[in-house]
Design goal:
Oligomer: heterodimer
Strand order of the largest sheet of chain A: 6-7-8-5-9
Number of helices of chain B: 20
Number of strands of chain B: 0
Radius of gyration of chain B: 22 Å
Radius of gyration of chain A: 24 Å
Largest sheet of chain A: 5 strands, antiparallel
Number of helices of chain A: 4
Helix content of chain A: 25-40%
Structural class of chain B: mainly alpha
Shape of chain B: globular
Strand content of chain A: 25-35%
Largest sheet of chain B: none
Distance between the termini of chain A: 67 Å
Order of helices and strands of chain A: HHEEEEEHEEEHE
């Protein structure tokens, strides 16, 4: 019967196929840095995620700033879906930080926040607010979030700011 | 007066935190060991290998209890309850024989080593999703929650992501960290151990050398699967769900083939815990329970597999409905659909006990995958774009490498149809139907969420394939053992617990 013959072939071939696939998996993983990186290398030290919490005017919506470990692909996440690249984790600044009074603005509410170096303002959710360029370690961002209100972070590499130092 | 925490040297603080995390993880793991030792098969080795995943499951249940009673997540209270479960069930087991004591000692040693390695080498991986879970862990502990009028989006996100992982990592508040770095690695070691043990025992009919090669090859195949290994240190639900699903399927199968319902007790707990982890969990539970309805499993096995899922689901859905009664805030299929699917599956598996009932159960089990395919066909006719885009994207993700699974799913796509065609072991539908049902569900889920899968590793489709990959590889191994006659089970005389 064809099923019996197929069964015999399957049982004979299975270990070899699994080993071949495993070897190929490892070669692909080792040979492609973008695959290997998340498993076997760690791009930086653990930051032992510190959380800062701030209550806003309506005492309902809290803003947590999580200073976390380096994440997938070398990206660091600060706050609620605001992602910076790993330069921040190394304490290299050059990021545009808009300090927004009031509640945290979610990323989709922020939209394309474009800083204007001439006026020192940034348009966030239709309003112009002052911004500052942070050139320091993450703890500065944590401090800002704690003391100054909601926070929007825009990588300077996306929105270059003269003198910011980021690229 | 002792020195304040922050005046201590940094190295002292770090050691203190490490010890705190170790203590927490040990409580959880020992509780799991105790539950398996007291209710599961009489095999200390199995108690050791299942201890971490079952312990995490037990802790999610105690956490859910604090939510249901107090309206907020109480990690300290939940840990105390978990410890109480461990003491109540573990002490009699240790007294039973020195063999059980050695089992517990082995668990403690391995856990201590893994916890320190996980913390020392900073293995944890995060994505924005990870941070959402941690934010929820903080929110759920807020005394003003859930009376506060939190935004509907928050509820929608919680329902989509589940209560379980925030409940686990909320324990980190007792350690000055915001997450437990060692939970994933501890569970990952347990999963690897149980998979190897299961494959070894169930291939006992093979010649020793051939058996060794097959088990080593299957372990190597899983161990080389990039995304599964990644999930060991990735802060998300995937490794836990993969482990629980494998425990549930293997436990249900062992209970049914060996006529030993003790396997089903911890397996049923593991299956129930998935309710708290994934929006689609109720559907996946149905994929496990419906084939069980058509099996020769006895009444105790059916109850043990089904009732915990219903109880946990009812409690969680009750909490949600109490504090967020507006169904408009629930994402599709998260509550109403899940409750219906879960209830129907549980009723089916319990009601089909007995000869007459099993005929209906077999019919339902046989119809399950074709009905799902029919549903997929209807949905595709209504909106072919979602499927065509999902196909194209999944090809890029799984074949061309964008999803970083390398060749894992290419190999499985070739091997699974052949394995299914040639397999003839007892109660094989308890393996084949969940696997194929899951693979059909994979294409249905984009319709349930109303958008196709997305490119890259951030895609939910790429991630959730980890849930079924271990079960799929175990099926390949079972199908490779010749001479398994239906109705007799596999290698019964050497299965663990005999």
């Amino acid at each position: 019967m064809w099923r019996d013959r197929l069964g015999v072939a399957y049982r004979a071939a299975l270990p070899g196929v699994l080993v071949a696939a495993a070897v190929a998996n490892l070669l692909l993983t080792v040979g492609v840095p973008s695959i290997a990186q998340p498993i076997w290398s760690h791009p930086g030290p653990s930051l032992e995620a510190a959380t800062q919490t701030q209550r806003t005017n309506d005492h309902r919506f809290r803003f947590h700033l999580l200073v976390g470990d380096i994440v997938d692909g070398g990206t660091l996440v600060v706050g609620d879906d605001v992602a910076l690249d790993q330069r921040v984790a190394r304490g290299i600044g050059g990021y545009t930080v808009a300090v927004v009074p009031g509640p945290l603005l979610l990323p989709d509410e922020v939209g394309a926040a474009v800083p204007d170096p001439a006026t020192g303002t940034i348009e966030v959710a239709g309003a112009l607010v002052d911004y500052r360029v942070v050139d320091g370690p993450l703890s500065d961002l944590a401090w800002l979030a704690t003391h100054d209100g909601g926070l929007v972070v825009v990588p300077a590499s996306v929105h270059p700011v003269p003198g910011a130092g980021g690229g | 007066m002792g020195a304040s925490w922050w005046s201590l040297p940094r190295s002292t603080r770090s050691r203190g935190r490490a010890v705190a995390e170790l203590g927490i993880v040990l409580v959880v793991v020992v509780a799991g060991w105790a539950v398996v030792a007291a209710t599961g098969p009489r095999d200390p080795f199995v108690a050791a290998l299942w201890s971490a995943p079952v312990g995490v499951a037990v802790h999610t249940f105690t956490s859910l209890g604090t939510m249901a009673v107090s309206g907020a997540l109480r990690p300290g209270v939940a840990l105390g309850l978990t410890a109480a479960v461990g003491v109540a069930m573990g002490v009699p087991a240790v007294r039973r024989s020195p063999y059980w004591g050695r089992s517990l000692f082995g668990v403690l040693v391995v856990t201590i080593v893994v916890v320190f390695v996980a913390r020392r080498f900073h293995l944890t991986r995060f994505t924005p999703d990870s941070f959402r879970y941690l934010l929820m862990a903080a929110d759920l502990q807020d005394p003003s929650w859930p009376a506060a009028q939190v935004p509907g989006e928050w509820w929608s996100d919680l329902l989509k992501r589940g209560f379980g992982l925030p409940a686990v990592h909320a324990l980190a508040d007792l350690t000055d960290r915001r997450y437990l770095a060692s939970v994933g690695p501890v569970v990952g070691v347990a999963l690897a151990g149980w998979f190897a043990r299961f494959c070894w025992v169930t291939t006992e009919g093979l010649a020793r050398r051939r058996r060794l090669v097959l088990v080593a090859a299957s372990v190597a195949f899983l161990g080389s699967s990039n995304r599964l290994v990644y999930d060991v240190s990735y802060l998300n639900t995937h490794l836990l769900v993969a482990t629980w699903l494998f425990l549930a399927v293997s436990g249900a199968w062992l209970a049914a083939t060996r006529r030993d319902p003790t396997w089903a007790v911890p397996a049923g707990l593991a299956l129930a815990a998935t309710v708290l982890m994934r929006a689609e969990a109720a559907l996946v539970i149905a994929l496990v329970l419906v084939p069980l309805a058509g099996s020769g499993a006895d009444r105790r096995t059916r109850l043990a597999m089904a009732v915990p899922s219903l109880a946990v689901g009812a409690t969680w859905f009750g909490v949600v409905a109490t504090y967020r009664p507006d169904p408009a805030a629930w994402p599709p299929f998260t509550l109403t659909g899940s409750a219906l699917a879960l209830t129907a599956a549980v009723v089916l598996v319990v009601a089909t006990d007995g000869e007459e009932g099993r005929r209906w159960g077999r019919w339902a089990a046989t119809a399950m995958v074709p009905v799902m395919l029919g549903g997929l066909a209807v949905l595709t006719l209504r909106d072919p774009t979602i499927l065509s885009e999902s196909l194209s994207i999944s090809f890029d993700n799984l074949v061309r490498g964008d999803g970083r699974w390398a060749l894992t799913w290419v190999a499985l796509a070739l091997l699974l149809p052949v394995a299914t065609a040639v397999s003839s072991f007892a109660e094989q539908s308890l393996w084949t139907r969940p696997v194929w049902g899951y693979l059909v569900l994979f294409w249905l889920l984009p319709y349930l969420r109303d958008e196709p899968w997305t490119p890259g590793t951030g895609d939910s489709g790429v991630r959730i394939l980890a849930h079924v990959v271990v079960v799929a590889v175990a099926l390949l191994v079972l199908a490779a053992v010749p001479g398994h006659r239906p109705g007799l089970g596999v290698g019964q005389e050497q299965l663990p617990g005999r």
